[in-house]
Design brief:
It contains 3 helices and 2 strands. By secondary structure, it is mainly alpha-helical. It is rod-shaped and about 90 Å long.
Length: 116
């Protein structure tokens, strides 16, 4: 029975040392975490997953799953454009169909042809 002592124990895993293997594993796991964060996924979670399983498997999963869409949708209503100020008094009213500002004396909206 051949016993490995001291530095001989940490010598080889297919030609590289355990320390090099560990550094590559951590480095590629960090790359997977950054790639996941750029795809709107949890970078820390994917980093830990890559440490536990394999950076190669986790990286393939990140690529296969792709990015996520934002779950929150913000609906905003544009405020009605105020009447423009000019040198003389120009009075405008709001069209009930298209919500555009038209002159008070107008009988037909110039945008949607609604009759007042």
């Amino acid at each position: 029975m051949n016993r490995l002592i001291g530095s001989e124990f940490c010598r080889d895993i297919g030609g590289i040392s355990w320390m090099e293997f560990l550094l590559f594993w951590l480095g590629f796991s960090a790359i997977v975490g950054v790639a996941a964060a750029k795809r709107n996924r949890s970078g820390v979670g994917w980093f830990i997953l890559a440490l536990v399983i394999s950076p190669l498997l986790a990286g393939l999963l990140v690529i296969a799953l792709g990015g996520t869409r934002p779950t929150t949708v913000y609906l905003t209503k544009d405020p009605v454009e105020p009447a423009r100020t000019t040198f003389g008094p120009i009075l405008e009213k709001l069209c009930p169909d298209c919500a555009e500002m038209v002159k008070v004396d107008a009988r037909i909206c110039r945008f949607c042809r609604h009759e007042f």
